[in-house]
Amino acid sequence: MTSRPAARPRVPNFSSGPCAKRPGWTPAALADAALGRSHRSPLGKAKLKQAIDLTREVLRVPADYRIGIVPASDTGAVEMAMWTLLGPKTVEVAAWEAFGSEWVTDALKQLKISPRIHQTPYGVLPDLSAIDTKHNDVVFTWNGTAAGVKVPNGDWIAADREGLTICDATSAAFAQPMDWDKLDVVTFSWQKVMGGEAAHGMLVLSPRAVARLESHVPAWPLPKVFRLTKGGKLIEGIFSGDTINTPSMLAVEDYLDTLRWAGQIGGLDALHARADANASVIHDWVARTPWIANLAVDPATWSNTGVCLVIADADVLAKGDAVVARVAKGIVETLEREGVALDVGAYRDAPAGLRIWCGGTVERADLEALVPWLDWAFAQEKAKLAQAA
């Protein structure tokens, strides 16, 4: 039987959102927060503008793209883009997990625009070549947070496209290379890859997206928090720190801190390298461990952030889905009780299993220390099954 490991992760936080704080973080990082000040004061607006400027610097966003801080995290940013931009063209939505499915629901049932839907089960990327990116608008996630499945690259998107690409990149931005030339709208939240606190989302618009905003009047009502234009012109203030509604200045300071940290460690290349190295710890362990497998079927689509895993042990699988779910839950509960891994259960709508965050704010040494505990926790569950037999 697998022996109980001696070494423990220094930081047991492997949640897929809110994600682990950057290494060395303490509440002292927030000492300069503009608390008790209006976000519209010179100080408040300066900090929001700095968050936009550092985002552009770290992510290497093209100079002619607008970056705005908007309400309701990544979800708010995606829905703001859909409500304000869709309508003039046929819409195609790609979905292979819970969050992509939400955008299908929005398009189909809320906006009622009869989209072309490309939907596959968890673990499998849709056939991207079947999406008409040349003529139509496209809504998709770059990295499926709940499935651990990413698009390998942007090669499938037409360079001479007539429509817009709206990309939910919340678990990809800062961790995976993204082809800005192929993306017209990019959204993400502070609490994912950079380990900030949940608050506002980020909305990045290409010049083509801005032109659509200024030429298109949606057929449906727009809530105030979704409105990006006034008198047919972009509300430029949103993209210079004049947010639509009140952000948490404490959360703003936290985002600024993690952006500064990114610059200190080497910027985007360093963030990508950290996520890749972290994910390789888990993927290499899976390759040599018969009881576990990647939920993502094609290695080219394996995520380097939220790595999603399923039970592959033949004895457990033979006992049916209920037992598989019980074993997965038991592993999660054991790891949390031992204080070595917190919040590593699969997303509630995903197949039963584990989800381990490997983004750049996680330390590789903590993942290396976690792996033996995963084997040990599974062994405990197998022993329980043997005793019950």
What does this structure look like?
This protein has 9 helices and 14 strands. It is of the alpha/beta class. A hairpin with a 2-residue loop joins strand 10 and strand 11. Helix 6 runs parallel beside helix 9 and helix 8 packs across helix 9. The longest helix is centred in the C-terminal third of the chain and has 25 residues. It starts with 41 loop residues before the first helix and ends with a helix. The mean pLDDT is 97.
Biggest sheet features: 7 strands, mixed
Question: Could you tell me how far the N terminus lies from the C terminus, measured between alpha carbons in angstroms?
Answer: 17 Å
Number of domains: 2
Number of strands: 14
Overall average residue pLDDT: 97
CATH class membership of the largest domain: Alpha Beta
What is the fourth-level CATH superfamily of the largest domain? Type I PLP-dependent aspartate aminotransferase-like (Major domain)
Beta percentage is: 5-15%
Order of helices and strands: HEHEHEEEEEEEHEEHHEEHHEH
Structural class estimated from helices and strands: alpha/beta
Percent helix among the residues?
25-40%
| Rough outline | globular
- What is the CATH architecture assignment of the largest domain? 3-Layer(aba) Sandwich
